Amino acid sequence: MATVRVELKHEPDKEGKHTVFISVSHHSKVGDKYVTKRTRINTGIKIKKNHFYKAKDNYGKWVKSKVPNHRKLNQFLKDEYNKADEKLSKQGYESISNEPSLSEYVEKEIKRCKAEGMYRSAEKLRHAHNKMQVYYNNMYGTTNIKFKNITQLFLDEYRTYLMTEKKDASNKEKGDSDEKEYGLGNHINTVASDYKRIKAVFKRAVKYKVISANDDPFYAYKIEQKATRKDKLTIAEIKRIETLELNEYTPEWHVKNYFLFSYFCAGIRFGDLAQLKWKNIKAGEEDEYERLSYVMSKTSRKDGSEHSIKLPEKAKEILKHYDKDKDDNKYIFPLLNPELKGIVAIKNNISSKNTMVNRHLKLIKVKAQIKTNLSFHISRHSFSDHLRKKDVSVHTIKGLLGHSDIKTTETYLASFDTEAEDKAMDNLFGE
Fold first, then answer.
1. Nearest to 418 by CA among 383, 376, 385, 379
2. N or C: which end of the chain has fewer CB within 10 A?
3. What is the pTM of this model?
4. Nearest to 350 by CA among 271, 256, 262
């Protein structure tokens, strides 16, 4: 014989709230005596004692209506109660308290990413999961999300929350429900990025049999996103930056060199450029500066192999401005503090320098009479677009950009292609 009931933990926490448990009692006869074994399942919900109905005839109405989101909380508890009751009849009480936790698995994935040097991926996964935890805690009173709690219905509701325009809760109209949700105002592509990271966690959990494939809500779930147009410079605009006369060794002069070196070197990202050392410059048979070889921080290969490109003459000319007292372990460009140790410190240094560089690029934009809002990453966009216009194969561009998937390159290049559409408009209206 067994019973299931919803109950509160006896001791409150520091805020005076009690954890809500699903209590499963299994009664059996051992010899002449009856023995009761109890399993308590932590639902993660916490409420005050006077907000809880403990009467047996209040099935589905344990949380009082004065509590915000009481309907959702009661539905959640009702679902947990029914699952416990169902599992109890099929498998026995000992198996029902071991539900795998998405939140705990995410922490393991973050540690794995860091161990493999994928710090950017680790940070983005943590950010996506933290946002989900905030929403889940507001709805259900817990930040410990279980895999089973993420359904396609939940994904739809959470997506709506993420994309709903931000509102000031203090400006709620009179009569608004306490359950009214205030969103984050995220762009649809931001939502897609977050969902893809959580989807990858589910995929690995299925692969390593933490959950079954049937428990993956992302199977056959469409993650929507919109194509965006990436800003880029024309070749003529790149030339204007090249020929821009600036006083040597001023901040703007250095920033001009950083931007052009990136453009000449297949759009190397700022974080990678800032960390380049002289050991990344490889000599050839007849040339001291033959190739640039480095491990890309974002699209790094799984085997840790380096991304290697031939240095064009214009990139070599830039290097010659910085090769005094060069040493294999010295940074090429005077950007980062060489005394800093540790990933976090270096990463913060990169971020602050990137902000500084973009600030000076705005000044260069004005002096070079460029209309496009200039930032460092536009060097990468421009390089890619100019290759596309010269009919270089997408496979070659994929290799130069260091993309791991040709679809990424195709999507990336498609965001630049406005010329065909502009030409069609001109033909229609005779311009």
1. 385
2. C
3. 0.59
4. 271
Q: What is the pLDDT of residue 86?
A: 73
Question: Which amino acid belongs to residue 371?
Answer: K
Q: String of b and e for 333-342 (b: at least 16 CB within 10 Å)?
A: bebbeeeeee
Residues 309, 2: Cα–Cα separation, whole Å: 69
Cα–Cα distance measured from residue 19 to residue 47, given in angstroms and rounded to the nearest whole number: 7
Residues with Cβ within 8 Å of residue 259, at least 6 apart in sequence: 241, 357, 361, 364, 376, 379
Surface-to-core class of residue 73, CB atoms within 10 Å of its CB (0-12 exposed, 13-18 middle, 19+ buried): buried
| Per-residue CA distances from 306 to 318, 384, 391 (Å) | 22, 20, 26
Tell me the residue length of the chain: 431
Contact 80, 41 (CB under 8 A): yes
Asked whether the beta carbons of 374 and 365 are under 8 A apart, the reply is yes
- Phi/psi of residue 37, nearest 5 degrees: -115, 135
Indicate the burial class of 233 (C-beta count within 10 angstroms; 0-12, 13-18, 19 or more). Answer: buried
- Say how far apart CA 107 and CA 92 lie, in whole Å: 30
Pull the structure tokens for residue 141: 């009173």
On whether the CB atoms of residues 44 and 73 are closer than 8 A, the answer is no
Task: Give me the pLDDT at residue 306, please.
Answer: 86
201-231 pLDDT tens trace: 999 999 999 999 999 999 989 998 887 778 8
What would the pLDDT profile of 46-63 be if each residue is shown by its tens digit?
889 999 987 555 678 889
Residue ranges in 92-187 assigned as alpha helix (H): 102-115, 119-140, 152-163
What are φ and ψ of residue 4, in 5° steps?
Answer: -125, 135
Q: Does residue 262 sit in helix, strand or coil?
A: helix
* Other CB atoms within 10 A of residue 168 CB: 7
**Mean pLDDT over residues 392-412, rounded?**
78
Residue 361 phi/psi, 5° resolution? -65, -30
Q: What is the dihedral of CA 399, 387, 224, 185, to 10 degrees?
A: 110
The span from the first CA to the last CA of the chain, in angstroms, equals: 84
Cα–Cα distance between 122 and 125 in angstroms, integer?
Answer: 5
β-partners of residue 32 are none
The half-sphere exposure of 221 on its side-chain side, counting CA atoms within 13 A, is: 21
